[in-house]
Amino acid sequence: MLLLPQNGWYVGKNNRGYFNTTLQKFAKHYVGSNPEASEQFRALLQDLNARTLGHKIEQCYTFLQQEKNRLQDTGLSVHSIISPISSAFIMSQFAHWLDPQGELLISTQYVRESTVKLVRGGLLPNHTELKPSGSDFIIRTGAQYSAFLSLFDAVREAAPQITSLLPPAYWREYFIWWSMNHRKELITSDTVLMKENDNAELLSSTPTQHLHMEEQDSLSSEYREKADDELASHRSLFIEHEPLLPIPEPWLSENIREVQRHILVDEQVIRRIYHALLSGHVILTGPPGTGKTDLARIIPEVLWRSPMAADSEHMDEAEGPEANGAPGDANNITETAYTTRLVTATDDWSTRTLISGIVPHQKDGQVSYRIQYGHLTTAIMKNWSFQGERTEDWSMLSLQRTRVTTTNSLARGITQTFKGQWLVIDEFNRAPIDRALGDALTALGGHNVLRVGIESGSAELPIPLDFRIIGSLNSFDRNYLNQISEALKRRFAFIEILPPTRAYRREEQSIVLYKALRDLKHLNQDITIEENAVTWAGVVTIQSDAEGIYQCDWDQEHPLFTLFYQVAWPIFEVLRIYRQLGTAQAITLIRQWLTPGILRAFTTADQWMGALDTAFCDIIADQLQVLLPDELDVLIWYLKFDAETFSQRYQQVLDKLVLKPRRLGAHLDALSMLVDERGQPFLCDEDIEHYTDPDEDEELEEIVIEQDILDQVFHLDHPAYHLPHFVRRLRTYKAEHGL
């Protein structure tokens, strides 16, 4: 990474991260096992300055090599040992602090490898005393460091008119950065940057192209302004390698409301997911249609948004929306958030699917085989900028944590920059996930290094500290699909996402109508979409308030107003007693119901009722096929009989189930899951225990559920509307159970 002065040019977060890690290794493994190591290192820092730097690099290399041999003999992992070739960077970094005005070159890996590319491209002179080692200049001795500096001294001597345009301090680093950004055009053009044995023509093509003094002044101003912009862009992509950071209030609360604007989930559930992500990976489990997949994508992209600048060191100083950065600045907002890579699990997954594997490749009629990276490896690599040339060299030294620029999944077609990318695995248990993850199980357990197959064998890919996997798991199909091992379970937090309760009835009704009509806009020009609002002229307008809550404004004379609130929604809520239908099913149901009415311009309640009957048959019926006969009976009676007859039959069913405590418990548990509009349960745990586990001296003859509870649970106060086709389907399912 480029290292420049701290007056605005210095950008060294990734190097500081590596430097801090090096010091931590030294304190933990070197000083702890060798009391003399600390004194030896102090001696290296004694009298360190720009003049003595080359000699100190040589001494440091010898010291680190001796310690490496000693620590390897103790069995210490290679990842815990400081590489001796880091001596040039370590000592030049210390020299920069101890002698800030000295003429020195901070030997980061970026600087060394970029210099190799400039030499090989003919843009810098070759040096007989310093030869590249692969893609790097390895600096072990004082002579090698002096030769390294002399490469750039030739540039300054040959073209002072060019180097004078660069910032005086650390002009070499700036020259490297500029040359690397223009390397291709310099190599392919007639411009000569450095000729062998002739250093008089630097950056000149013909004698007529020499600049007058006033032109040079203009170039200097224009060049510096452009360079500032380019460097700022270059710098903003590289970030500190750090753990997933918490979100300070009030941003967290505001971002939770923004999540709820997209999907209706209780705030406490979102906070549970947030807390789980701060500590590790998460699987969202629950019945179909509850928004698990959408939530997995929205939370990383929205919850970690901040209108502040991306520097997380100042996040906790914010006290309000104006504290740091403009709230409406999309780039500032997303640069602290995370985008996601969404993949859907299938039964044929293997290690090749997630990690890597050999695949055939055809070109010009010839078939060859090469390594293809899997979904997990690809997502991890998106977070890194690799400064080397061979994947064998993956390490915290050659990888720099970088931002990710991609399209926004919420605002499709808009490209934005995010802090990183996570992996979302939809339908987690549809794949043999333990087999597909393979050795990644160890990495997810805290090892933080993923072993990946490469062309020459395998290499270790570091996992960013803020990288996460979010899975979605359909709990309804759990018994029919692949099982998850206990080893994998302990690496994830499992958080259940259930349909919204009746306490959120108004909010859910509004968001269902909003999304259904939004999808049907193309069918009728009377349906219009504005920002956070949908209007069906003459029928209803749905829009969100400042808190992100959707509300409906109806023409109450329209037949849909009564049918939606007194027929369609009550029936849907009753079906939910025995089958946890998510908001997605409600949206699909209402969309299917409205489509024929919009196309054929229905005007009467009977027309809309016929369409509703058909919609329940087409969208909901098949999802009720798994219900047991006693549950189907209750639903059929609810749809057929008046309130009094239904209540009598329901009580009779419960009385018959006294001798079947498991089935009785299932019915009562279904009631206990329901809450009223105030969030209070209709049936408490004590009531259920009383009926399902009575005292030994108590003989239970009948179950008594108060009529008031039945009225509320089954909406018995609403007028009865029959759905003959839907009832017929339910009868068919009951008959199939009998067979």
TrEMBL record:
Q: What is a single Pfam family found in this protein's UniProt entry?
A: AAA_5
**For the AAA+ ATPase domain, which residue ranges apply?**
278-502
Q: Where is this region: Disordered?
A: 310-332
Q: Which InterPro entries match?
A: AAA+_ATPase, ATPase_dyneun-rel_AAA, Methyl-DNA_Rec/Restrict_Enz, P-loop_NTPase
SMART domains listed in its UniProt record:
AAA
Q: Which PANTHER family match?
A: 5-METHYLCYTOSINE-SPECIFIC RESTRICTION ENZYME B, TYPE IV METHYL-DIRECTED RESTRICTION ENZYME ECOKMCRB SUBUNIT
Protein's name in the database: AAA+ ATPase domain-containing protein
